[in-house]
């Protein structure tokens, strides 16, 4: 968020935004034409632990699962009831945040980077409901289950490309 805010303060507005995970959440808010300072206030005001119903003991379990997932132990993992509940709540949060906008309605070109869990390929999402593309881009293994989109199972794009500047050159 800091990079876009500093560019805007310098009078430079990007004409293309590509990002993954939390960056996709912020980038989506910006390209939708919303005030990033407002997003900062929303994020600061929202207790994400309370929003998702994450108790401190469960948070420690999530940290362990995330570490295991990032070490490549995600094959054969089926979402738990808790992961599915978190996905539903996070999807609804994003749906409300982006007010049902689609990628095609944006004034600034935007791509949310995700990873295909089966092939390991990078996927650049540039069409469809904004909240679904961003949800797939932010589906951190061990916290949120993969998101099914266009026949693929997608997870956090940071697992394949944490800084997708190469995608902008294409």
Walkthrough of the structure:
- Helices cover 46% and strands 15% of the residues.
- The chain contains 8 helices and 5 strands, in the order H-E-H-H-H-H-H-E-E-H-E-E-H.
- It has helices spanning 2-9, 22-31, 36-45, 48-52, 56-70, 81-98, 130-137, 165-168; strands spanning 16-20, 109-116, 122-125, 147-149, 152-156.
- Strands 1, 2, 3, 4 and 5 form a 5-stranded mixed sheet that branches.
- The longest helix has 18 residues, at 81-98.
Number of strands: 5
Net shape: globular
Helix content: 40-55%
Largest sheet entry:
5 strands, mixed
**Percent strand:** 5-15%
What are the secondary-structure elements, in order, as H or E? Answer: HEHHHHHEEHEEH
Distance between the termini: 23 Å
Overall pLDDT metric: 80
Q: List the uncertain runs.
A: 69-74
| SS element count, helices | 8
Question: Radius of gyration, rounded?
Answer: 16 Å
Structural class: alpha+beta
Task: Throw out a few tags for this protein.
alpha+beta, globular, about 170 residues, single chain, five-stranded mixed sheet, about 45% helix
Short description:
It is built from eight helices and five strands; from the N terminus they run H-E-H-H-H-H-H-E-E-H-E-E-H.
Summarize the helices and strands and which ones pair or pack.
Blueprint: H1 2-9, E1 16-20, H2 22-31, H3 36-45, H4 48-52, H5 56-70, H6 81-98, E2 109-116, E3 122-125, H7 130-137, E4 147-149, E5 152-156, H8 165-168
Parallel strand pairs: 1-2
Antiparallel strand pairs: 2-3, 2-5, 4-5
